[in-house]
Amino acid sequence: MEDMKEVILEYVIEEYCDEENDDVTFETPLISGGIVDSFSMVSLKRFLENKYKISIPDADASPEAFDTVNKIEVLVKRFL
Amino acid sequence: MAYSNKIKELYQNQLKGIQDAGLFKQERFIHSSQDAEIEVEFPTGSAPKKVINVCANNYLGLSSHPEVIKAAHEGLDTRGYGMSSVRFICGTQDIHRELENKVSEFLGTEDTILFPSCMDANAGVFEAILTSEDIMISDRLVHASIIDGMRLCAAQHDTFKHSDMAHLEKKLQLHADKRLKVVINDGVYSMDGDTAKLDEMAALCEKYDALLFVDESHSSGFIGKTGRGTHEKCGVMGKIDIITTTFGKALGGASGGCVSGRKEIVEMCRQKARPYLFSNTIAPVVVSGVLRVLDILSQSTERRDKLEVNTEFWRKGLSEAGFVLKDGDTPIVPVMLFNAKLAQDFSKDLFDLGIYAIGFFFPVVPQGAARIRTQISAGHEMHHLEKALDAFIKVGKKYDILGKTKQEIIEMYGN
Q1: How does pLDDT run across B284-336, given as a tens digit for each residue?
Q2: Nearest to B53, CA basis, from B377, B327, B393
Q3: Testing the interface with B: which of A39, A41, A50, A66 to mutate, by most B Cβ within 10 A?
Q4: Which numeric CATH code is attached to B66-299?
Q5: What strands lie across the sheet with B29-30, from one edge to the other?
Q6: Residues paired with residue B156 on neighbouring β-strands, in sequence order
């Protein structure tokens, strides 16, 4: 099975980064660091839901829970 | 007293933080009307200095046009100074509806509703027409007023990479299940001066059954063969569902804005848009001025044609001199300097040479993308532009950036 963190990181880089900010790691702050704006979180949520066949309630999809790849992995695993 | 020393210090510290970060905005007092040449008091307390203005949104040079001023005077004399009311109580005069009809005719839309500003139009339109069952898909570089409007709306939001049509299509597919989808973008992007691909967007919106929204604040009056806007330039007049624009830039430069587009959408704004419902009507003097502006622009394309010639001269001159510019063909011509301090120093040196142009840096533009944003006007005569170009070249030589690439400038000054 592919590593979940790698999958999420790859999506984040492809979706949100350009050549100026593509040095993102599992611990890079995505929302508080300005890489993913709050408007764009919806794509990430839908990507995770489709990819892992889960449903993340809006109340759990907070900017804090989406702030790093590590945190996103923890969130996804709660709903698997 | 509620305003204790503790509260006072809190704000003083915040303001100091803004100053320490080099982000403190200082207003410069202008002692003349808005024009190609203005008299600026800078620094504060000094005698006003006559300078050539290359940073106004006065694209068509109509801000102080004698016919517009005359029409405004007539409006003042016949309809008074203010209405002391919102539109739907006792704030709608015959000239307000006349202007709405004229704007619809000019933009080629079904109907129009006036707002106190385009900021208000953008703040009010999404909330008035969308619900939580809908999705707003916006370009990542849309204007701050659109972002605020989306924040006030219960619909979900998503973004697509700037002007990336493949990415937009993916987003339209991703959100195919939503009741309504609205694609949101600026016609001309105010910081970079590039133009939206409205023709491709209109085709995608048709394919995926989405509404198309465009803010034409930096386009209305001069983009397209007869100045109708980006939709005219892209050959999609009649295919844009929602246009917002301002009267505060090319269209006279005073204030006011509007939502123009599909009849039902405009009517929804009239019933539900909060900045329309809870804010004063546009002053009669402004309405009268804009009516005259639209007459002038409908009679002749002379001013937008002159702007096109001026823009071509300016862009070619800067490019041949060796400046790094943002690509485009609009009168917004950003001279890229990348470093915030360099942009500020460059601006100051230009002022000393009689040219008024402001440095833009983070957070107004992305980090490392500092620039002098120049804006050309039909009010400029060739001698203004030649003098401004000479000054840019002199200052460019001083900092040794002419003919240098982005990378070389960053190596010299940082970003």
Answers
A1: 999 999 999 999 999 999 999 999 999 999 999 999 999 999 999 999 999 99
A2: B377
A3: A39
A4: 3.40.640.10
A5: B29-30, B37-41, B49-53, B355-356
A6: B135
The reply to whether B25-54+302-413 and B66-299 are identical in fold is: no
Q: If pLDDT is split at 50, 70 and 90, which confidence band does A20 have? A: low
For β-strands B49-53 and B242-246, DSSP reports them as unpaired
CATH number at residue A73: 1.10.1200.10
Contact criterion met (CB < 8 Å) for B171 and A43: yes
Annotated domain spans of chain B: 25-54+302-413, 66-299
Measured CB to CB, residues of chain B less than 8 Å from chain A are 135, 138, 140, 147, 150, 156-159, 171, 174-175, 366, 368
Tokens of B359: 């440095």
Test A40 with B158 for CB contact under 8 angstroms. Answer: yes
Q: Give the position of tokens 């809190």.
A: B10
Mutate to test the interface with A, among B159, B164, B183 (most CBs of A within 10 A): B159
Output the pLDDT for position A1.
53
For residue A2, pLDDT beyond 80: no
Q: Which residues of chain B have pLDDT under 70?
A: 1
* Cβ–Cβ below 8 Å for B147 and A39: yes
Beta strands in B134-240 (DSSP E): 135-139, 156-160, 181-186, 211-215
Residue A21 lies in a domain: no
- Return the number of CB contacts < 8 Å for A and B: 23
* Residue A29 neighbours by CB under 8 Å, 6+ apart: A35, A67, A68
CA dist list (Å): A73 to A41, A48, A78, B195, B370: 15, 10, 9, 39, 36
Q: Are B123 and B163 in contact (CB under 8 A)?
A: no
Q: Is residue B4 among the annotated active site residues?
A: no
- The CA distance from B302 to A39, in Å, is 42
Q: How far is CA A33 from the centre of its chain?
A: 13
- Which has more pLDDT, A58 or B409? B409
Fold adopted by B25-54+302-413 = Aspartate Aminotransferase, domain 1 (3.90.1150)
Asked if B259 and B145 count as a contact pair (C-beta separation under 8 A), the reply is no
Residue B278: per-residue pLDDT: 96
Residue A57 lies in a domain: yes
Are B72 and B285 contacting, i.e. CB atoms less than 8 angstroms apart? yes
* pLDDT computed for residue A40 by the predictor: 84
**Per-residue pLDDT, B1:** 67
Q: How far apart are CA B42 and CA B44, in angstroms?
A: 5
Domain count, chain A: 1
Q: Which residue of B has its CA nearest to A49?
A: B174
- Which residues span the domain enclosing A68? 4-15+26-79
Searching chain B, which residue's CA lies closest to the CA of residue A42?
A: B158
**A46 found inside a domain:** yes
ipTM of the prediction: 0.80
**Cis amide bond preceding B363, omega within 30:** yes
